[in-house]
Amino acid sequence: GDACGPAGSGQAREQPVLEAVLPAPAEEQNGTDSAKAPKVNCEERNTTGIERFTLQILDVSQDLMEFLNPNSSDCTLVLFYTPWCRFSASLAPHFNSLPRAFPTLRFLALDASQHSSLSTRFGTVAVPNILLFQGAKPMARFNHTDRTLETLKDFIFNQTGIEARRDVAVTEEDWEGPLPSVLTKGIDWLLLFSVLFLAAFVMYATVRTDSIRWLIPGQEHEHQE
Q1: pLDDT value at position 97?
Q2: Is the pTM above the cut of 0.85?
Q3: How would CATH label the architecture of 56-175?
Q4: Non-local CB neighbours of 101 within 8 Å, separated by 6+ positions
């Protein structure tokens, strides 16, 4: 009840084993567990010369793997979403604010319905779905049902050990984009095709009723009488 699916066509044949990390309770963060080494050692990017930290959305012609460097240890948080899913829309402003909270990390988003092969490859059969990549390898999946800026911050910190900027909050600009927070109505082509096919079959059967009766045993003599 907290995700939309399916995200793409087909079933997930290959699902990487990813650890589902939930934000640690506040009392545990102040204990010895908070001193543990990060699970993913991310290489933080150089932010010199970057004036605006924002989310990049991939269009249908762009391939995610072209944006992930397999020879690098830098980390990228990738969101699989669909513009017609209300859970994706409610997550949007929170995800839009993340690049400002973690300027040394990269953030990408893609419409899962337009990248069905990637959805199948990484087992993202429901959206929204968030994966943490190191290089081109998926390392962890965000599985918390409470998708807010704070829970996303906790997830990234628990995985990478990178602390978020404390002065970052969700703003009105984050509600406007780049990830849409307003649902868009899409066309269900499979449903439309099914309705048209059924309507065409009914019309054909109605027009050819007499011909069909001749094919039923016993109807020929009744017709002659």
Answers
A1: 96
A2: no
A3: 3-Layer(aba) Sandwich (3.40)
A4: 149, 153, 164, 165, 168
